[in-house]
Amino acid sequence: MAAALPPPDFTAARAALAAGDLNGCAGIAAAAVQSHPHLAEGHFLFAMALGEGGRIAAALQAIDRATDLAADNPEYQAQRARLLTLARREAEARAAADRAAASAGAADARTLDTIGCVYARLGDHAAALPLFEAAVAMAPDNAEYRFNLAAAYGFFDRKADAEAQYEAILRRDPAHGRAHFGLAGLRRQTPAANHVERLERALDAARDPLDRLRIHYAAAKEYQDIGEHDAAFRHLDTGNRAHKARTGFSIDADARNAFAIRTAFDRSGYFTGASKVEDAPIFVTGLPRTGTTLVDRILSSHPEIASAGELQAMPLAIKRLAKTPSRLVLDMETILAAAGLSPDAVGRDYIDRARQHEGARHGRFVDKLPLNFLYIGYIARALPNARIVCLRRNPMDSIWSNFKNLFATTSAYYGYSYDLVDCARFYLLFDQLIAYWRAKLPGRVLEFSYEGLIDDQEGQTRRLLDHCGLQWNPACLDFHANAAPVATPSAAQVRRPLYRDGIGQWRAYERHLAPARDFLIGQGIAID
Protein backbone atom coordinates (compact mmCIF):
# COMPACT_ATOMS: atom_id res chain seq x y z
CA MET A 1 0.00 0.00 0.00
CA ALA A 2 1.47 3.34 -1.08
CA ALA A 3 2.23 5.84 1.64
CA ALA A 4 0.06 8.96 1.71
CA LEU A 5 1.67 12.01 0.16
CA PRO A 6 2.64 14.72 2.66
CA PRO A 7 0.43 17.82 2.60
CA PRO A 8 1.65 20.65 0.38
CA ASP A 9 3.53 23.57 1.93
CA PHE A 10 1.02 26.31 1.19
CA THR A 11 2.80 28.68 3.59
CA ALA A 12 5.84 28.62 1.32
CA ALA A 13 3.62 29.18 -1.74
CA ARG A 14 2.00 32.24 -0.15
CA ALA A 15 5.39 33.60 0.86
CA ALA A 16 6.64 33.19 -2.71
CA LEU A 17 3.56 34.98 -4.05
CA ALA A 18 4.03 37.87 -1.59
CA ALA A 19 7.68 38.16 -2.65
CA GLY A 20 6.76 38.29 -6.34
CA ASP A 21 8.21 34.85 -7.03
CA LEU A 22 5.42 33.77 -9.37
CA ASN A 23 7.28 30.75 -10.68
CA GLY A 24 7.97 29.52 -7.15
CA CYS A 25 4.35 29.95 -6.12
CA ALA A 26 3.05 28.37 -9.31
CA GLY A 27 5.39 25.41 -8.94
CA ILE A 28 4.28 24.58 -5.41
CA ALA A 29 0.62 25.16 -6.26
CA ALA A 30 0.74 23.07 -9.45
CA ALA A 31 2.31 20.17 -7.57
CA ALA A 32 -0.36 20.48 -4.89
CA VAL A 33 -3.13 20.41 -7.49
CA GLN A 34 -1.65 17.19 -8.89
CA SER A 35 -1.18 15.47 -5.55
CA HIS A 36 -4.13 16.87 -3.59
CA PRO A 37 -6.75 18.02 -6.14
CA HIS A 38 -9.41 18.17 -3.45
CA LEU A 39 -7.61 21.00 -1.61
CA ALA A 40 -8.98 24.38 -2.68
CA GLU A 41 -5.87 26.27 -1.57
CA GLY A 42 -3.71 24.73 -4.28
CA HIS A 43 -6.12 25.78 -7.02
CA PHE A 44 -6.41 29.24 -5.46
CA LEU A 45 -2.67 29.90 -5.25
CA PHE A 46 -2.15 28.57 -8.76
CA ALA A 47 -4.82 31.03 -9.92
CA MET A 48 -3.13 33.90 -8.09
CA ALA A 49 0.24 33.15 -9.69
CA LEU A 50 -1.35 32.95 -13.14
CA GLY A 51 -3.29 36.16 -12.60
CA GLU A 52 -0.26 38.12 -11.40
CA GLY A 53 1.50 36.91 -14.53
CA GLY A 54 -1.26 38.33 -16.74
CA ARG A 55 -2.83 34.98 -17.69
CA ILE A 56 -6.33 36.01 -16.67
CA ALA A 57 -8.35 33.38 -18.55
CA ALA A 58 -6.26 30.53 -17.12
CA ALA A 59 -6.39 32.12 -13.66
CA LEU A 60 -10.17 32.19 -13.78
CA GLN A 61 -10.32 28.52 -14.63
CA ALA A 62 -8.16 27.70 -11.62
CA ILE A 63 -9.99 29.97 -9.20
CA ASP A 64 -13.36 28.61 -10.33
CA ARG A 65 -12.17 25.21 -9.13
CA ALA A 66 -11.12 26.74 -5.80
CA THR A 67 -14.51 28.37 -5.27
CA ASP A 68 -16.27 25.16 -6.26
CA LEU A 69 -14.41 23.41 -3.44
CA ALA A 70 -14.77 26.27 -0.90
CA ALA A 71 -17.72 28.36 -1.99
CA ASP A 72 -17.97 30.45 1.18
CA ASN A 73 -14.31 31.43 1.45
CA PRO A 74 -14.39 35.26 1.23
CA GLU A 75 -10.77 35.54 0.08
CA TYR A 76 -11.35 33.18 -2.84
CA GLN A 77 -14.55 34.94 -3.86
CA ALA A 78 -12.94 38.38 -3.56
CA GLN A 79 -9.99 37.42 -5.74
CA ARG A 80 -12.33 35.75 -8.22
CA ALA A 81 -14.29 39.02 -8.39
CA ARG A 82 -11.06 40.93 -9.01
CA LEU A 83 -10.05 38.60 -11.84
CA LEU A 84 -13.50 38.87 -13.36
CA THR A 85 -13.20 42.68 -13.47
CA LEU A 86 -9.87 42.28 -15.27
CA ALA A 87 -11.64 40.01 -17.76
CA ARG A 88 -14.38 42.68 -18.15
CA ARG A 89 -17.03 40.27 -16.89
CA GLU A 90 -18.63 42.83 -14.62
CA ALA A 91 -21.96 41.12 -13.84
CA GLU A 92 -20.17 38.00 -12.63
CA ALA A 93 -17.69 40.17 -10.72
CA ARG A 94 -20.57 41.85 -8.91
CA ALA A 95 -22.08 38.49 -7.93
CA ALA A 96 -18.71 37.24 -6.65
CA ALA A 97 -18.12 40.48 -4.72
CA ASP A 98 -21.59 40.25 -3.15
CA ARG A 99 -20.88 36.69 -2.09
CA ALA A 100 -17.52 37.69 -0.62
CA ALA A 101 -19.11 40.64 1.20
CA ALA A 102 -21.75 38.36 2.71
CA SER A 103 -18.91 36.43 4.37
CA ALA A 104 -16.82 39.50 5.13
CA GLY A 105 -17.04 38.97 8.88
CA ALA A 106 -14.47 36.22 8.47
CA ALA A 107 -12.28 38.18 6.05
CA ASP A 108 -8.85 39.67 6.57
CA ALA A 109 -7.94 43.26 5.69
CA ARG A 110 -6.59 42.40 2.24
CA THR A 111 -9.80 40.63 1.32
CA LEU A 112 -11.95 43.52 2.56
CA ASP A 113 -9.87 45.97 0.53
CA THR A 114 -10.10 43.73 -2.55
CA ILE A 115 -13.90 43.56 -2.33
CA GLY A 116 -14.01 47.33 -1.92
CA CYS A 117 -11.84 47.82 -5.01
CA VAL A 118 -14.17 45.62 -7.06
CA TYR A 119 -17.20 47.64 -5.97
CA ALA A 120 -15.34 50.86 -6.75
CA ARG A 121 -14.51 49.63 -10.26
CA LEU A 122 -18.19 48.87 -10.73
CA GLY A 123 -19.09 52.41 -9.66
CA ASP A 124 -20.64 51.39 -6.32
CA HIS A 125 -18.61 53.65 -4.07
CA ALA A 126 -21.22 53.50 -1.30
CA ALA A 127 -20.66 49.74 -1.00
CA ALA A 128 -16.89 50.15 -1.19
CA LEU A 129 -16.49 52.76 1.54
CA PRO A 130 -17.31 50.67 4.65
CA LEU A 131 -15.08 47.87 3.39
CA PHE A 132 -12.16 50.26 3.01
CA GLU A 133 -12.85 51.61 6.51
CA ALA A 134 -12.85 48.08 7.95
CA ALA A 135 -9.61 47.20 6.14
CA VAL A 136 -7.84 50.28 7.58
CA ALA A 137 -9.17 49.57 11.07
CA MET A 138 -7.76 46.05 10.81
CA ALA A 139 -4.41 47.00 9.22
CA PRO A 140 -3.71 50.69 9.98
CA ASP A 141 -0.09 50.52 8.79
CA ASN A 142 -0.99 49.51 5.24
CA ALA A 143 -0.61 52.57 2.99
CA GLU A 144 -2.53 51.01 0.07
CA TYR A 145 -5.63 50.46 2.19
CA ARG A 146 -5.43 53.99 3.58
CA PHE A 147 -5.04 55.42 0.10
CA ASN A 148 -8.16 53.62 -1.15
CA LEU A 149 -10.09 54.90 1.86
CA ALA A 150 -8.85 58.46 1.35
CA ALA A 151 -9.90 58.39 -2.31
CA ALA A 152 -13.34 57.09 -1.38
CA TYR A 153 -13.80 59.85 1.20
CA GLY A 154 -12.86 62.35 -1.49
CA PHE A 155 -15.53 60.97 -3.83
CA PHE A 156 -18.11 61.76 -1.13
CA ASP A 157 -16.67 65.23 -0.43
CA ARG A 158 -15.52 64.21 3.05
CA LYS A 159 -12.43 66.37 2.78
CA ALA A 160 -11.33 66.31 6.42
CA ASP A 161 -11.55 62.53 6.58
CA ALA A 162 -9.63 62.18 3.32
CA GLU A 163 -6.93 64.59 4.51
CA ALA A 164 -6.50 62.61 7.72
CA GLN A 165 -5.85 59.43 5.74
CA TYR A 166 -3.44 61.08 3.31
CA GLU A 167 -1.51 62.65 6.20
CA ALA A 168 -1.31 59.27 7.96
CA ILE A 169 0.27 57.82 4.82
CA LEU A 170 2.76 60.69 4.52
CA ARG A 171 3.85 60.36 8.14
CA ARG A 172 5.03 56.85 7.29
CA ASP A 173 6.22 57.57 3.74
CA PRO A 174 7.02 61.26 3.07
CA ALA A 175 7.66 60.53 -0.64
CA HIS A 176 4.32 58.77 -1.31
CA GLY A 177 3.42 60.45 -4.61
CA ARG A 178 -0.22 59.38 -4.79
CA ALA A 179 -0.92 60.71 -1.28
CA HIS A 180 0.67 64.08 -2.10
CA PHE A 181 -1.30 64.29 -5.33
CA GLY A 182 -4.59 63.32 -3.69
CA LEU A 183 -4.10 65.79 -0.85
CA ALA A 184 -3.30 68.68 -3.19
CA GLY A 185 -6.50 68.09 -5.14
CA LEU A 186 -8.89 68.08 -2.20
CA ARG A 187 -9.19 71.84 -1.84
CA ARG A 188 -7.87 75.15 -3.18
CA GLN A 189 -4.65 76.05 -1.40
CA THR A 190 -3.88 79.56 -0.16
CA PRO A 191 -0.65 81.55 0.39
CA ALA A 192 -1.19 81.08 4.13
CA ALA A 193 -1.99 77.35 4.02
CA ASN A 194 -0.35 75.09 1.49
CA HIS A 195 2.14 72.25 1.19
CA VAL A 196 4.63 73.60 -1.36
CA GLU A 197 7.68 73.49 0.90
CA ARG A 198 6.91 69.91 1.93
CA LEU A 199 6.37 68.96 -1.70
CA GLU A 200 9.77 70.34 -2.68
CA ARG A 201 11.37 68.27 0.09
CA ALA A 202 9.43 65.19 -0.97
CA LEU A 203 10.62 65.62 -4.53
CA ASP A 204 14.23 65.61 -3.33
CA ALA A 205 13.57 62.37 -1.43
CA ALA A 206 11.52 60.52 -4.05
CA ARG A 207 13.30 57.88 -6.10
CA ASP A 208 10.44 56.14 -7.87
CA PRO A 209 9.74 57.93 -11.20
CA LEU A 210 5.96 57.73 -10.82
CA ASP A 211 6.17 59.14 -7.29
CA ARG A 212 8.23 62.01 -8.69
CA LEU A 213 5.70 62.59 -11.49
CA ARG A 214 2.80 62.75 -9.03
CA ILE A 215 4.68 65.08 -6.69
CA HIS A 216 5.46 67.38 -9.63
CA TYR A 217 1.73 67.51 -10.44
CA ALA A 218 0.80 68.12 -6.82
CA ALA A 219 3.32 70.96 -6.59
CA ALA A 220 2.08 72.46 -9.86
CA LYS A 221 -1.50 72.42 -8.63
CA GLU A 222 -0.61 74.11 -5.35
CA TYR A 223 1.66 76.70 -6.97
CA GLN A 224 -1.14 77.55 -9.38
CA ASP A 225 -3.56 77.90 -6.47
CA ILE A 226 -1.32 80.48 -4.82
CA GLY A 227 -0.61 82.36 -8.06
CA GLU A 228 3.02 81.31 -8.64
CA HIS A 229 2.52 80.41 -12.30
CA ASP A 230 6.14 80.07 -13.38
CA ALA A 231 6.79 77.56 -10.59
CA ALA A 232 3.62 75.67 -11.52
CA PHE A 233 4.68 75.37 -15.15
CA ARG A 234 8.23 74.40 -14.21
CA HIS A 235 6.97 71.41 -12.25
CA LEU A 236 4.60 70.31 -14.99
CA ASP A 237 7.19 70.68 -17.72
CA THR A 238 9.84 68.79 -15.76
CA GLY A 239 7.56 65.94 -14.76
CA ASN A 240 5.93 65.59 -18.15
CA ARG A 241 9.18 65.64 -20.12
CA ALA A 242 10.60 62.84 -17.99
CA HIS A 243 7.44 60.74 -18.23
CA LYS A 244 7.13 61.10 -21.98
CA ALA A 245 10.78 60.11 -22.38
CA ARG A 246 10.17 56.97 -20.29
CA THR A 247 7.09 55.92 -22.23
CA GLY A 248 8.41 56.76 -25.71
CA PHE A 249 4.92 57.95 -26.69
CA SER A 250 4.24 59.10 -30.26
CA ILE A 251 0.99 60.75 -31.26
CA ASP A 252 1.23 59.25 -34.74
CA ALA A 253 -0.93 56.26 -33.72
CA ASP A 254 -3.72 58.62 -32.59
CA ALA A 255 -3.50 60.45 -35.92
CA ARG A 256 -3.70 57.18 -37.85
CA ASN A 257 -6.73 56.06 -35.85
CA ALA A 258 -8.60 59.34 -36.40
CA PHE A 259 -7.89 59.21 -40.13
CA ALA A 260 -8.89 55.53 -40.31
CA ILE A 261 -12.22 56.23 -38.59
CA ARG A 262 -13.13 58.96 -41.07
CA THR A 263 -12.02 56.85 -44.02
CA ALA A 264 -13.98 53.83 -42.78
CA PHE A 265 -17.25 55.70 -42.27
CA ASP A 266 -16.90 57.21 -45.74
CA ARG A 267 -17.32 53.72 -47.18
CA SER A 268 -20.95 52.94 -47.99
CA GLY A 269 -20.93 49.44 -46.51
CA TYR A 270 -19.03 50.16 -43.31
CA PHE A 271 -20.81 49.20 -40.07
CA THR A 272 -24.29 49.28 -41.58
CA GLY A 273 -27.55 47.56 -40.74
CA ALA A 274 -30.54 48.15 -38.52
CA SER A 275 -30.43 48.17 -34.73
CA LYS A 276 -33.51 47.41 -32.68
CA VAL A 277 -31.97 48.45 -29.37
CA GLU A 278 -34.50 50.73 -27.68
CA ASP A 279 -32.43 51.97 -24.74
CA ALA A 280 -31.64 55.69 -24.84
CA PRO A 281 -28.44 56.38 -22.89
CA ILE A 282 -26.92 59.85 -22.97
CA PHE A 283 -23.29 60.07 -24.07
CA VAL A 284 -21.32 63.07 -22.85
CA THR A 285 -18.15 63.24 -24.93
CA GLY A 286 -15.37 65.68 -25.73
CA LEU A 287 -11.79 66.29 -24.80
CA PRO A 288 -11.10 65.49 -21.14
CA ARG A 289 -11.20 68.45 -18.74
CA THR A 290 -13.55 70.52 -20.88
CA GLY A 291 -16.72 70.29 -18.76
CA THR A 292 -17.83 66.70 -19.27
CA THR A 293 -18.15 66.03 -15.52
CA LEU A 294 -20.10 69.28 -15.10
CA VAL A 295 -22.61 68.32 -17.81
CA ASP A 296 -22.85 64.79 -16.40
CA ARG A 297 -23.65 66.33 -13.00
CA ILE A 298 -26.30 68.61 -14.48
CA LEU A 299 -27.99 65.73 -16.28
CA SER A 300 -27.83 63.32 -13.35
CA SER A 301 -29.47 65.94 -11.13
CA HIS A 302 -32.61 65.30 -13.21
CA PRO A 303 -34.87 62.78 -11.44
CA GLU A 304 -35.10 60.59 -14.55
CA ILE A 305 -31.33 60.24 -15.08
CA ALA A 306 -28.47 58.54 -13.24
CA SER A 307 -24.75 58.85 -13.87
CA ALA A 308 -22.86 55.67 -14.73
CA GLY A 309 -19.53 57.45 -14.79
CA GLU A 310 -16.88 56.89 -17.45
CA LEU A 311 -17.76 53.53 -18.95
CA GLN A 312 -15.50 51.57 -21.26
CA ALA A 313 -18.56 49.69 -22.52
CA MET A 314 -18.63 50.99 -26.12
CA PRO A 315 -14.89 50.62 -26.81
CA LEU A 316 -14.99 47.12 -25.32
CA ALA A 317 -18.10 46.12 -27.27
CA ILE A 318 -16.38 47.02 -30.55
CA LYS A 319 -13.15 45.35 -29.50
CA ARG A 320 -14.79 42.12 -28.32
CA LEU A 321 -16.99 41.68 -31.36
CA ALA A 322 -14.21 42.64 -33.78
CA LYS A 323 -12.11 39.82 -32.24
CA THR A 324 -8.78 41.46 -33.01
CA PRO A 325 -5.82 40.01 -31.09
CA SER A 326 -3.98 43.26 -30.33
CA ARG A 327 -3.72 44.49 -26.75
CA LEU A 328 -4.91 47.97 -27.75
CA VAL A 329 -8.63 48.68 -27.47
CA LEU A 330 -8.58 50.96 -30.52
CA ASP A 331 -6.18 50.51 -33.43
CA MET A 332 -6.20 50.29 -37.22
CA GLU A 333 -6.83 46.55 -37.12
CA THR A 334 -9.90 46.92 -34.91
CA ILE A 335 -11.33 49.80 -36.97
CA LEU A 336 -11.03 47.71 -40.16
CA ALA A 337 -12.47 44.59 -38.49
CA ALA A 338 -15.50 46.54 -37.27
CA ALA A 339 -16.69 46.97 -40.87
CA GLY A 340 -18.85 43.85 -40.86
CA LEU A 341 -20.16 44.10 -37.32
CA SER A 342 -23.89 44.29 -36.72
CA PRO A 343 -24.92 47.62 -35.15
CA ASP A 344 -27.67 45.72 -33.34
CA ALA A 345 -25.14 43.28 -31.83
CA VAL A 346 -22.83 46.13 -30.79
CA GLY A 347 -25.73 48.01 -29.21
CA ARG A 348 -26.86 44.98 -27.25
CA ASP A 349 -23.32 44.21 -26.10
CA TYR A 350 -22.92 47.82 -25.00
CA ILE A 351 -26.17 47.80 -22.99
CA ASP A 352 -25.32 44.46 -21.39
CA ARG A 353 -21.94 45.82 -20.29
CA ALA A 354 -23.23 49.19 -19.18
CA ARG A 355 -26.04 47.74 -17.06
CA GLN A 356 -23.46 45.94 -14.93
CA HIS A 357 -22.28 49.27 -13.49
CA GLU A 358 -24.02 50.79 -10.52
CA GLY A 359 -25.35 53.97 -12.10
CA ALA A 360 -26.66 52.19 -15.19
CA ARG A 361 -28.45 49.27 -13.58
CA HIS A 362 -31.92 50.78 -14.02
CA GLY A 363 -33.51 53.41 -16.25
CA ARG A 364 -31.75 56.04 -18.36
CA PHE A 365 -28.17 56.89 -17.59
CA VAL A 366 -25.26 59.08 -18.66
CA ASP A 367 -22.04 57.55 -19.98
CA LYS A 368 -19.47 60.32 -19.70
CA LEU A 369 -16.33 58.72 -21.10
CA PRO A 370 -14.90 61.80 -22.86
CA LEU A 371 -13.03 59.89 -25.54
CA ASN A 372 -16.24 58.30 -26.79
CA PHE A 373 -16.02 61.12 -29.35
CA LEU A 374 -13.94 58.60 -31.29
CA TYR A 375 -16.92 56.22 -31.31
CA ILE A 376 -19.75 58.61 -32.21
CA GLY A 377 -20.37 56.90 -35.54
CA TYR A 378 -20.70 53.52 -33.86
CA ILE A 379 -22.90 54.92 -31.09
CA ALA A 380 -25.26 56.62 -33.54
CA ARG A 381 -25.85 53.41 -35.51
CA ALA A 382 -25.81 50.88 -32.67
CA LEU A 383 -28.06 52.91 -30.35
CA PRO A 384 -30.56 54.80 -32.51
CA ASN A 385 -32.27 56.36 -29.47
CA ALA A 386 -29.07 57.49 -27.78
CA ARG A 387 -28.48 61.20 -27.29
CA ILE A 388 -24.95 62.48 -27.85
CA VAL A 389 -23.44 65.64 -26.38
CA CYS A 390 -19.96 66.90 -27.24
CA LEU A 391 -18.33 69.52 -25.03
CA ARG A 392 -16.47 72.36 -26.72
CA ARG A 393 -14.11 74.66 -24.85
CA ASN A 394 -11.63 77.34 -25.89
CA PRO A 395 -8.77 75.50 -27.62
CA MET A 396 -6.00 76.95 -25.47
CA ASP A 397 -7.91 76.39 -22.22
CA SER A 398 -8.53 72.82 -23.40
CA ILE A 399 -4.83 72.26 -24.09
CA TRP A 400 -3.71 73.81 -20.82
CA SER A 401 -6.26 71.81 -18.82
CA ASN A 402 -5.12 68.54 -20.42
CA PHE A 403 -1.44 69.33 -19.93
CA LYS A 404 -1.85 70.11 -16.23
CA ASN A 405 -4.06 67.14 -15.36
CA LEU A 406 -2.53 63.79 -14.49
CA PHE A 407 -4.50 60.99 -16.15
CA ALA A 408 -3.97 57.24 -15.78
CA THR A 409 -0.23 56.95 -16.26
CA THR A 410 -0.38 53.55 -18.00
CA SER A 411 -3.25 54.33 -20.38
CA ALA A 412 -2.49 54.71 -24.08
CA TYR A 413 -5.54 56.97 -24.33
CA TYR A 414 -3.82 59.88 -22.60
CA GLY A 415 -0.23 59.67 -23.82
CA TYR A 416 -0.66 62.97 -25.67
CA SER A 417 -1.19 64.90 -22.42
CA TYR A 418 2.49 64.95 -21.41
CA ASP A 419 3.61 67.26 -24.22
CA LEU A 420 2.21 70.68 -25.15
CA VAL A 421 2.49 70.24 -28.93
CA ASP A 422 1.02 66.73 -28.66
CA CYS A 423 -1.91 68.30 -26.78
CA ALA A 424 -2.33 70.79 -29.61
CA ARG A 425 -2.14 68.05 -32.24
CA PHE A 426 -4.68 65.98 -30.33
CA TYR A 427 -6.99 69.01 -30.17
CA LEU A 428 -6.71 69.28 -33.96
CA LEU A 429 -7.59 65.57 -34.38
CA PHE A 430 -10.59 66.09 -32.12
CA ASP A 431 -11.73 69.22 -33.93
CA GLN A 432 -11.46 67.55 -37.34
CA LEU A 433 -13.32 64.44 -36.20
CA ILE A 434 -16.18 66.42 -34.66
CA ALA A 435 -16.48 68.41 -37.90
CA TYR A 436 -16.69 65.08 -39.71
CA TRP A 437 -19.47 63.76 -37.42
CA ARG A 438 -21.30 67.07 -37.80
CA ALA A 439 -21.43 66.59 -41.57
CA LYS A 440 -21.96 62.82 -41.48
CA LEU A 441 -24.62 62.71 -38.74
CA PRO A 442 -26.50 66.02 -38.91
CA GLY A 443 -28.53 66.69 -35.80
CA ARG A 444 -27.26 63.70 -33.81
CA VAL A 445 -24.58 65.51 -31.81
CA LEU A 446 -25.20 68.57 -29.66
CA GLU A 447 -21.99 70.61 -29.59
CA PHE A 448 -22.19 72.24 -26.21
CA SER A 449 -20.04 75.21 -25.26
CA TYR A 450 -18.51 75.30 -21.79
CA GLU A 451 -18.20 79.07 -21.98
CA GLY A 452 -21.78 79.35 -23.26
CA LEU A 453 -23.01 77.42 -20.22
CA ILE A 454 -21.14 79.74 -17.88
CA ASP A 455 -22.61 82.81 -19.61
CA ASP A 456 -26.22 81.56 -19.75
CA GLN A 457 -26.73 78.70 -17.31
CA GLU A 458 -30.49 78.36 -17.53
CA GLY A 459 -30.79 78.92 -21.27
CA GLN A 460 -28.06 76.42 -22.09
CA THR A 461 -29.33 73.90 -19.53
CA ARG A 462 -32.75 74.04 -21.18
CA ARG A 463 -31.07 73.46 -24.55
CA LEU A 464 -29.19 70.48 -23.13
CA LEU A 465 -32.29 68.89 -21.61
CA ASP A 466 -34.27 69.44 -24.78
CA HIS A 467 -31.64 67.65 -26.87
CA CYS A 468 -31.72 64.74 -24.41
CA GLY A 469 -35.53 64.50 -24.54
CA LEU A 470 -35.98 65.59 -20.93
CA GLN A 471 -38.56 67.89 -19.40
CA TRP A 472 -37.30 70.98 -17.63
CA ASN A 473 -36.42 70.44 -13.97
CA PRO A 474 -34.93 73.23 -11.81
CA ALA A 475 -32.81 70.69 -9.90
CA CYS A 476 -30.49 70.74 -12.90
CA LEU A 477 -29.53 74.32 -12.02
CA ASP A 478 -28.59 73.19 -8.50
CA PHE A 479 -26.26 70.43 -9.70
CA HIS A 480 -23.76 71.37 -6.98
CA ALA A 481 -26.23 70.10 -4.37
CA ASN A 482 -26.20 66.62 -5.90
CA ALA A 483 -24.92 64.32 -3.13
CA ALA A 484 -23.85 61.44 -5.38
CA PRO A 485 -20.13 60.58 -5.31
CA VAL A 486 -17.81 62.05 -7.95
CA ALA A 487 -14.85 59.92 -9.04
CA THR A 488 -13.12 62.30 -11.47
CA PRO A 489 -10.53 65.09 -11.09
CA SER A 490 -13.39 67.61 -11.36
CA ALA A 491 -14.96 66.53 -8.06
CA ALA A 492 -14.20 69.79 -6.23
CA GLN A 493 -15.35 71.99 -9.10
CA VAL A 494 -18.76 70.37 -9.63
CA ARG A 495 -19.63 70.79 -5.97
CA ARG A 496 -19.62 74.57 -6.46
CA PRO A 497 -22.13 76.70 -8.37
CA LEU A 498 -20.95 77.77 -11.82
CA TYR A 499 -17.93 80.08 -11.76
CA ARG A 500 -15.78 81.82 -14.35
CA ASP A 501 -12.35 80.92 -12.94
CA GLY A 502 -11.63 78.37 -15.67
CA ILE A 503 -12.26 80.73 -18.59
CA GLY A 504 -9.05 82.17 -20.01
CA GLN A 505 -6.92 80.41 -17.42
CA TRP A 506 -4.28 79.70 -20.06
CA ARG A 507 -3.46 83.41 -20.31
CA ALA A 508 -1.45 83.20 -17.09
CA TYR A 509 0.84 80.76 -18.93
CA GLU A 510 0.75 82.39 -22.37
CA ARG A 511 4.53 82.64 -22.68
CA HIS A 512 4.99 78.99 -21.81
CA LEU A 513 2.18 77.82 -24.09
CA ALA A 514 3.53 79.57 -27.20
CA PRO A 515 4.43 76.30 -29.03
CA ALA A 516 0.86 75.01 -28.73
CA ARG A 517 -0.62 78.39 -29.66
CA ASP A 518 1.60 78.71 -32.72
CA PHE A 519 0.70 75.20 -33.88
CA LEU A 520 -3.05 75.90 -33.68
CA ILE A 521 -2.74 79.22 -35.45
CA GLY A 522 -0.72 77.52 -38.17
CA GLN A 523 -3.57 75.05 -38.62
CA GLY A 524 -6.13 77.83 -38.96
CA ILE A 525 -7.74 77.34 -35.56
CA ALA A 526 -8.82 80.51 -33.79
CA ILE A 527 -7.62 80.59 -30.20
CA ASP A 528 -10.03 83.29 -28.94
TrEMBL record:
Positions annotated as TPR repeat: 109-142
Pfam families, per the entry: Sulfotransfer_3, TPR_19
Gene3D superfamilies linked to this entry: P-loop containing nucleotide triphosphate hydrolases (3.40.50.300), Tetratricopeptide repeat domain (1.25.40.10)
Keywords: TPR repeat, Transferase
Listed GO MF terms: protein-tyrosine sulfotransferase activity
Tree of life domain: Bacteria
Annotated PANTHER family: PROTEIN-TYROSINE SULFOTRANSFERASE, PROTEIN-TYROSINE SULFOTRANSFERASE 2
Protein name in UniProt: Sulfotransferase
Biological classification of the source: Bacteria, Pseudomonadati, Pseudomonadota, Alphaproteobacteria, Sphingomonadales
